[in-house]
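Fold this sequence, please.
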Amino acid sequence: MQIFSTSLPDVKLVRSQKHGDDRGWFSEAFSTRDFSAAGLPDHFVQDNQSFSRKGVLRGLHYQLGEPQGKLVRVLSGHIWDVAIDLRPDSPDFGKWVGVHLKGEEIESLWIPEGFGHGFLVLSETASVLYKTTRFYHPVGERCVRWDDPTLGIAWPLGGIGTPTVSAKDAAGSLLLAAELPPPYQFV
């Protein structure tokens, strides 16, 4: 397993090695030993899976009170995955990173607590699996708008036009008006 830094130092790209032959391939997609050795969380409490069609944009989601770290992986299809630093005391507050994740590549994106997360489906369909460090906490669920001009996220919308978003995500807050977590919640 290889772990790479992104333009946001706390967000990591995790690449697993494929072992293949004429039957197909095998990969160890997650290992507590490797994550622990890299200084990343190795305890997850929940796995979530979503299935979406081309042009669906989910996010930018985060939780107050029970912030979640997420390890995001595409099982099939192709997405553009985005993490945004929402920690008010961070020097990277409001900065974002986007990464292409594809099912045929065994890569995951580690998004720590205190970050917003969202993705855009670029293939006809995509199945996304993500592990979380804390359980879903509906009372604390929040969303920053995907199209917030302050963020200036360069979503790859060519061939898609206007993305399909849920009513809840369309009603998300702008970053400068968002209810953000207090700095003491993050390690």
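The domain at 2-179 is CATH 2.60.120.10 (Jelly Rolls). The chain has a mean pLDDT of 93.
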